[in-house]
Amino acid sequence: MLVLGHQNPDCDSLCSAIGLAALFNKIGRPATPVLQGEPNPEAQFLLEQSGFPTPEIRTSVAGEEIFIVDYSDWGQGTADMKKAKIRGIVDHHKLGDITTSEPLECWIWPVGCSATIVYNMYKFNNQKPDADVAKLMMGAIISDTVNFQGPTTTDIDKVAAKELAEIAGVADLAAFAKAQFEAKSDIASVSAAELILRDQKVFEMAGEKLAIGQLELTSLETAFSKKDEMLVEMGQLQADKGYHSTIVLLTDITKLDTTALIISKDADKVAKALNSAVVDHMFELPGVVSRKKQIIPFLQEAFEA
Ligand code: MG
Ligand code: MG
Ligand code: MG
Question: For residue range 214-267, what is the model confidence (pLDDT) as tens digits?
């Protein structure tokens, strides 16, 4: 069985795939974690810290048995995922559009991170992750919950991260989180084209496609210096793909605020749905850090009204 994260692999999509495959191997269900692309720099940092080898990249899963982690939408899977047998889903997002022809094992909880669920699957099976895998899963929880400051954080996440840190032998979680966030904030030499795609997800709302990326950074200074280049790349992507909107959320994880860049057929509609107003392809979202909880539901409401 393959355990497959979503497109544009982030920490959770990488670490939960590794964690879940390792659990399955412990309980006699042979499994291999696979990625749909290169892990992002923060996920790379976690691989380096844990010493775990980078999983194989697979963009085709036709004919395979698969378990998917950190999504439940066809759009975030491989193009041929409908030709695979989906045996299960672990996720913490809103329920997507995946349906199956056979029963499947679903672990979908409203918590801050898929790795939190995977850790509880270990407990359910009376198992414990190895130290390297525990460190990866701990890092995923730090990432997805923005070090427990984000609005999706639950006590279940905090308990899981604390226990995983003990297993991993990480004494100072705050120091680990700081180094991890510095790794993802180092964008000076990253091209604008790469930045806008780094954590991009495409959402369908009332027949329109909205591509929404997010950069979580300890300071927005460098991102602002690349603003014009990013807007050019976003305009290009928008024209190529026919999106309704192309958005990049620049999230300051120190101040817990977001500034959005937007190219759109109707930017005012998007900004208004989020109680903001566009000035020069930009709008402010004070206090916003979570795309899934503080952005998507409001856009969906505005588009599907
Ligand atoms: Mg994810
Ligand atoms: Mg996640
Ligand atoms: Mg994320």
Answer: 999 999 999 999 999 999 999 999 999 999 999 999 999 999 999 999 999 999
3-state secondary structure 122-142: HHHCCCCCCHHHHHHHHHHHH
How many angstroms separate the alpha carbon of residue 279 from the centre of ligand 2? 31
Closest CA to 96 of 118, 81, 116: 81
As residues whose CB is below 5 A from the ion ligand 1, the structure lists 10, 12-13, 70
**Domain ranges across the chain:** 2-183, 192-303
User: Is residue 283 classed exposed, middle or buried when 0-12, 13-18 and 19+ CB atoms within 10 A define those classes?
Assistant: buried
**Given CA atoms 239, 241, 245, 249 in this order, what sign does their dihedral have?**
negative
CATH superfamily of 2-183: inorganic pyrophosphatase (n-terminal core) (3.90.1640.10)
- Residue 209 bridge partners (DSSP): 204
The correct CATH number of 192-303 out of 1.20.1250.40, 3.30.565.10, 3.30.365.10, 3.10.310.20 is: 3.10.310.20
Tell me the CA–centroid distance for residue 11 and ligand 1, in Å.
7
CA of 28 to the centre of ligand 3 (A): 31
pTM above 0.70, yes or no: yes
